[in-house]
Every structure is written in C-alpha cells, then in structure tokens.
C-alpha cells in the first residue's frame, strides 16, 4: 500500500442473533487480525446490538414509523465502508435470517465494494452459508473475495479465553485480508475516477 493511501474502512457485519451464540468469539478473533494491519480499519456492526426491522415495506411504499431510527444505526456505517467482512454461522445449510434481512434493507451501500467471509459451524464450517451468500452479494452488485476463513467444529478451535488454537486460521485470515485490501483499494480508486453504475 502506498504510504499516502488512506486505510480502508471495513464493516464487519455479525450475522448471528441467536441466544448463546458463538459469533462474539469469532468476531473478536477477526478484529484482532484487522487491528494488526495499517491498511484496514474495522467497524463491527453486530445485528444483536443494532437490530433492524424484519418486515420490508411493499415495493415503492414508505417503511412504517420507527424504521428510519433503526436503520440510522446501521445504514450510514455500511455506506461509509469501503469493504465488508460477513461473519456468519451456518443454520440448516444456510445463513441466518438476520443477515439476509440486513442485506435486503440496503442497496447502494453494497455497490462496487468487496465482501469477504468468515464462517463457522460444525463439519462444514459454515461453507454452505458462504456459497449461498456469494450469490446474494452478486445480486446487490458487490464483489466477493475468493479466499475465506472457515472454522470447522468451531467450538474446538478456541480456548476458553477466546484464543484461537488453530494456527492455520491466521494464515487463512492473512490471505483473505490481503485480497480484501487489494480489491478494496482497486474499487475505491476506480469509483473516485468513474461512478459505479448498478
């Protein structure tokens, strides 16, 4: 990264809202990796702390009262992001409803921006959720990063204090974040010259 380049703003969107969730452990690990970099700045958007309305208005209609206040806690942060990392578990071979809801409430916030994935779960490590999210993110004009971080049998990969015990995870995170940084800078630079057309 050139010395004059401004760090990328990375919105880390935490998709799980389930009681007793494991997402905070994975998210703390990820933000620890982001904090070690000079080229990326993390903003954690946890959908448990900032829940969004679950009923979308009819097409072309105004949302119900109170919606704007809820969106105001999330939408400006997504709009300000240069890149995203979605932290997702796998529920029934897919991703959480709260994550899809957050994606659907937004449009231009995703356009022309890179998206990386950190997933966790049982044997599949959340990879089926990621494969479905790739299709969804393509529909909202985002660019997904090939490399992912996937925690298979996630509960056995972390010590009680939240320390990751799998050294391969750091290698995977570096590859993911290097690609995210490359795409983030390339797309941000391109949009500064020519506006993105969706």
TrEMBL record:
Q: Where is the NADPH-dependent FMN reductase-like domain?
A: 9-155
Q: Report the leader peptide range.
A: none
Q: Name one Pfam family in it.
A: FMN_red
InterPro entries reported in the protein's UniProt record? Flavoprotein-like_sf, FMN_Rdtase-like_dom, NAD(P)H-dep_reductase
From the Swiss-Prot or TrEMBL record, give the protein name. Answer: NAD(P)H-dependent oxidoreductase
